[in-house]
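Memo to structure team: turn this sequence into structure tokens by end of day. - J.P.
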Amino acid sequence: MNPAYVLAELTRRPARTMAGLLSVAVGVALFITLLAYANAYRQAARFPLTEIGANIVAQRQGTVPKAFQGVVLPHSTAPIHRHEIETIQTLPGVQALAEAIFFWDFEHDGFLVGLGLDPSTAVGPGRLRAGLRAGRFLEAGDRGVAVADASYAAQKHLGVGDAVTIAGEPIRLVGIVDTSRAGPVANANLYVSLTDARAFASAAPNVRAVFDVRPDDADILFVRTDPSHAPSVSEQIRQVLGSKAIMTTPRSFEEVLGATFDLIDRFGLLVGLAGVMIAMAGLLRAVAAGLWERRRDIGLMRAVGWRRRDVVTQLAGETLVLTGLGELAGLALAGVVTWGLRFSQVTIPVPWELTPTPHFLPGGAMQAAVTVPLQVRISPNVAVTSLAVGLLGGILVSLWVARRAANIKSAEVWRSE
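Reply from structure team:
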């Protein structure tokens, strides 16, 4: 292959060169951008659970209380007994587990959402410690104290040291936390020790009326697993909890992101490959169109002694160089597009069962959501794959065009001149 000849052909036929280069660039950019966009959505869907250090939230579907008075369990939760918790803890792939008691409290002076937690755990709502705004957080062994959500405290004009009532008992506020720091999963108005929450639930008449509640139960489990084991662990937890198990995983959030993400997630690779194929078709059209213009040049090559193999090598080299330049341009274009997409955000609705509020309250049940910036990045694997696919297409196009060109006979060309 003669590099000087390749350079001359690419620079002296700018229309053909630009047509082929743009075809490849757009196809490669489409392939890379679609996969980067789908991956960014997937990462965004993991955000709500990542904020609490878990990748599985397990609970059991409960039942509607007979009366909404005092402490009740939301009907998206039911007691999970100690032997079930211990079985889940021993499942292969489970790295950490945090227990919690989520409850509603209907008092004569209002309604509140409570959550009992173990402040010593590294997963689950214990991570709220990072959002402390005033006072202190719950500590191991605490009884009769609570930490309030900042929004709830502002609404009720509460401060550190004030008294609140849960299940008819006075509770002293020792801190205020910004729950938005730990995402919208299992948000509550007041956070108490797991020991206190268990006592409230096991003693509540309207809980005991519908559940076999025990003093060491939980009703929500936050589980951190090895990501590679997460699907199998989720299925095993489902089997432990039975047919009423409610399993929340990153996939649960992906499912509520809408049809657009579902389309990109399921068919992004196919659409990207289709884009590359269309790009190769554009390259083929541009190169094939230029081939007719060069019939005389090719005939002259053959007349002065160029062998068929020499013509194939030269023309294939030109096409591959054009393909390579187009891929680099496509990679740069994808970089610009993905950079621009980083300024966009996606709002992820949180399933009601993770932040349950009564439907019959004024305004109905609250729909929690989290807004996450899209972290669109081009992964090296996607970039290499796209370049490899584009190069393969360029090789096929170059060989097909070069072989057609090599079959041009000098006598036929000069006869038509």
